[in-house]
Amino acid sequence: MGLRPLLSILSSGEYFSGVLLGEKLGVSRTAIWKMMAKIEELGVDVECVKGKGYRVKGGLDLIEKDIVNRLCCRDQVAFCDVLLDVESTSSYLMEKMARNALADNVFGFCLSERQTKGRGRRGRQWVSPFGQNIYLSASYFFPGDVSGLAGLSLSIGIAIAELLMDVGVSGVQLKWPNDLIIGGKKLGGILVELSGEMTQGCMVSIGIGLNVGMRASEIDTIDQPWASLIEEGVSIRRSQLAAKLIEDIVAAVTQFNERGFAEFFPLWQQYDYLKGKQLAVVGADISGIGAGINESGEMLIQSNGQIISVNAGEVSVRVATNSD
Ligand code: BTN
After folding, report:
1. Does 129 sit in the ligand 1 pocket, CB within 6 Å?
2. Per-residue pLDDT tens digits for 256-275
3. What residue spans of 184-272 are helical by DSSP H?
4. Half-sphere exposure for 208 (CA within 13 Å, toward CB)
5. pLDDT tens-digit series, residues 219-249
6. What is the pLDDT of residues 303-312, one digit of tens each?
7. Quick one: 37 exposed, middle or buried, by C-beta within 10 A (0-12, 13-18, 19+)?
8. 136 CA to centre of ligand 1 in angstroms
9. Do residues 13 and 58 touch, judged by C-beta distance below 8 A?
10. Is 57 a catalytic residue?
11. Which of 266-283 are b and which e, b meaning 16 or more Cβ less than 10 Å from the residue's Cβ?
């Protein structure tokens, strides 16, 4: 038996004796004990109190496959795999797509409760503890030339920022090219990767990490200022957020494939975190003031009276500190 039925029972946050759990699931107490050990290996903090039984203090907000599938659009979504544990949802989808290609205009999705090798941009790790955040990847076949994908990740960022505004999260900003920011801290990130024969189209994977329920008191392994929705006072069921994300990604990619970045471009201005800030381009001897983006999605920097454009594939930009 998989761990999901047991996790679902424990998600209430109540105590359950081993006997009761065994009865509910039709397995022995020893089997329950072994399953508890596996649940702990996932990083779930299971309390075991003599005379009371097991509980997960505070309960769990699990991603319910049924809720996600019921709430999200159907016809363009071939599948949405909801996993408990995976190295990386993006790697998982890339491997799955390499075995079984998707038809045009159809998307495959993967969500996981935890990632053990979550990947961020520039080879960084994406910290992905169990049951707290959204780790979501989308994959689809893009039939055109890869140059037609410039601006895709910015468009996805805009779609997510708008979604968050819709569900009541105010003050979300976008740090070019791929960071979701709130209160000056990183709330999420987007990783677009391509695979396959670039000459005849390619498979696109869009990976989204969004901090939802992660508590600063429990995480000390992230080397930059970060935020989560819960720390911002926003409480939202992850299943609902995941379903909305799936819908909005399908809509944004469809719009992008049909009409490119043009319709997203004016929306960037209202979320632009870097505009007017003193910036330094990492790996290049460029510094200046953030001056928005151009219609191709390149970052513009005003430097020594000139406007310089920088490309997301080549450089990354950081807000300069006093010591720069
Ligand atoms: C960034 O560095 O800002 C991008 C982070 C992207 C993380 C997501 S989580 C889901 C998907 N799977 C991964 O391994 N990475 C992306």
Report:
1. no
2. 999 999 999 999 999 999 99
3. 238-259, 265-268
4. 27
5. 888 888 999 999 999 999 999 999 999 999 9
6. 999 999 998 7
7. exposed
8. 8
9. yes
10. no
11. ebbeebbbbbeeebbbee
